[in-house]
Write a structure and sequence with these properties.
transmembrane; five-stranded mixed sheet; membrane; alpha/beta; Transport permease protein; abc type-2 transporter like fold; ABC_2_transport
C-alpha cells in the first residue's frame, strides 16, 4: 500500500501538530529561555573565560634600595604586559601577607645593596616570591620574571658600555624565584581543593533540585502541604538528609585526597569544616531555588547545567581569572564557588586562617545569605 496515501499522511494534520508543539514551547517559559539564551551564554563564556594565557598578574614590590636604579627595574616589571603593579610595601612580611590573602601572585624583593653592587660593577640579585598554589600561573610568572630581568640587565649593560666604553667592567642583574606553599609545583595540590568545592556544589544542587521537582510531579508535595507541617519544618526537614549526604561526600573527598593524592590540609580542619558546611547549605538553597522555577525534572536539569557551567569556567577552577575581562571577573565574583575555592586553597594548600581569608569568606557568606533569603521567600510562596 502506498505510504503517501492521505490516510497515512496529511499536510494539514502535520501543520496542526507543528502549531501545537510551538504552543507548548511558548508556554514552557524556562525551556524557551534556556533554548535561546544558553547558546549565547556558552559562546560568551567559552570565548572570554576559556583562556590559558596568563597575563596581568598582580605584583607587589618591596624596594629596600629606593634608588633610581631600583625604580628602573620596577618600571621594567610594571610596564610589561605580564604584570600589574598592585602595591609598594614596606617589608617582606607585607609581601607574604598579601600573597597569603591571595591579593597578589608575585612579590618582587629588591635588596638595600642593589644599586651599590651595580655601581661597584658587581652582579646584583633580586628575589621574586611566587604563589605556588597555582602551578600554571607560578611557572609562567617565574618565566616572565627571568625574561624581564634578563632584558633589563642587557639594557643596563648596553647603556653603561655606551657611557663608559667598550672595555669597561659592567655589573649585571639577575633574579632568583622562590615558590611558596607548593615548592614542587604539583598540580594535584591546586586541582584537588577545587574538585572538593565542585563536588560539594554540583552533587548537592542536582540532588536537591531533582528531589524537589520529583515530589511536585508525584503530588506528594501537595499531600505534605495539607498536613499540619509548617513551611519552615518542611524546608528544614527536606534539606537535612542532603546536608548529611554532603557531609559524607566532604569527608570522603578530603580523606581520599590525602590517601590517594597525598594532599593534606595544611591549615585548620575546624575552619575548613565549618566553612564547608556553610557552603553546603548555600548549595542546598540554590538547588531548592532552582526547583521553584522548574516544572519538571528535565527543566531542573537544564537550569542546573546553566548554573553549573559558569561556576566551573568562571570560578578559577580551570582557567586563571586574572586573564579574564573585567566584566567576566565581576560576574565570577557573584558566584559563591569563586570565593569558596579561594578559601579551600588558602586553608588546604597555604595553611592560612580566616584572618588572611577574611575578604573571600565575607563575600561567600554574603552571597550565600542572599541565596538563602531569596530561596526561603520563593519556596515558602510556592508552598502557600
Amino acid at each position: 500500500m502506498n505510504k503517501f496515501h492521505p490516510h497515512f499522511f496529511s499536510f494539514k494534520r502535520l501543520v496542526t501538530i507543528t502549531k501545537k508543539e510551538f504552543i507548548h514551547i511558548r508556554r514552557d517559559k524556562p525551556s524557551l529561555v534556556i533554548s535561546f539564551m544558553l547558546p549565547i551564554m556558552m559562546l560568551m563564556l567559552f570565548g572570554f573565560a576559556v583562556n590559558t594565557d596568563v597575563n596581568n598578574i598582580d605584583l607587589a614590590v618591596y624596594d629596600a634600595s629606593r634608588t633610581s636604579l631600583s625604580r628602573e627595574l620596577i618600571g621594567s616589571f610594571s610596564n610589561s604586559y605580564y604584570f600589574t603593579h598592585y602595591a609598594l610595601v614596606d617589608s617582606e612580611v607585607d609581601l607574604e601577607r598579601l600573597i597569603n590573602k591571595g591579593e597578589i601572585k608575585v612579590g618582587l624583593i629588591i635588596p638595600d645593596d642593589y644599586a651599590i653592587k651595580l655601581k661597584r660593577k658587581e652582579p646584583a640579585q633580586v628575589q621574586v616570591l611566587v604563589d605556588g598554589s597555582d602551578p600554571s600561573i607560578a611557572r609562567t610568572a617565574a618565566s616572565y620574571s627571568l625574561s624581564i630581568t634578563a632584558h633589563h640587565s642587557t639594557e643596563y649593560q648596553v647603556r653603561e658600555i655606551k657611557r663608559l666604553g667598550q672595555d669597561a667592567s659592567i655589573g649585571s642583574v639577575s633574579v632568583s624565584p622562590m615558590f611558596l606553599y607548593n615548592p614542587t609545583l604539583e598540580s594535584a595540590r591546586f586541582n584537588i581543593p577545587g574538585v572538593v568545592g565542585l563536588i560539594l556544589q554540583n552533587i548537592t544542587i542536582v540532588l536537591t533540585a531533582l528531589a524537589m521537582v520529583r515530589e511536585r510531579e508525584l503530588g506528594t508535595m501537595e499531600q505534605l502541604i495539607m498536613t499540619p507541617v509548617t513551611s519552615f519544618e518542611l524546608i528544614v526537614g527536606k534539606i537535612i538528609p542532603y546536608i548529611l549526604i554532603g557531609i559524607y561526600d566532604f569527608i570522603v573527598v578530603i580523606t581520599l585526597s590525602y590517601w590517594v593524592f597525598g594532599v593534606s590540609v595544611a591549615g585548620s580542619m575546624f575552619e575548613l569544616t565549618m566553612l564547608g558546611l556553610i557552603f553546603l547549605i548555600g548549595a542546598l538553597a540554590m538547588g531548592m531555588l532552582i526547583s521553584t522555577f522548574a516544572r519538571n525534572q528535565a527543566q531542573a536539569i537544564q537550569v542546573t547545567l546553566a548554573f553549573i557551567l559558569p561556576s566551573v569556567l568562571l570560578s578559577g577552577f580551570m582557567f586563571p581569572r586574572e586573564s579574564m575581562p573585567q566584566v567576566i571577573q565581576f560576574i565570577s565574583n557573584l558566584l559563591p564557588i569563586t570565593h569558596f575555592l579561594i578559601v579551600l586553597r588558602g586553608i588546604i594548600v597555604k595553611g592560612v586562617g580566616l584572618t588572611e581569608l577574611a575578604d573571600a569568606t565575607i563575600a561567600m557568606l554574603s552571597l550565600i545569605g542572599l541565596i538563602i533569603f531569596v530561596t526561603t521567600i520563593k519556596f515558602t510562596k510556592k508552598l502557600d
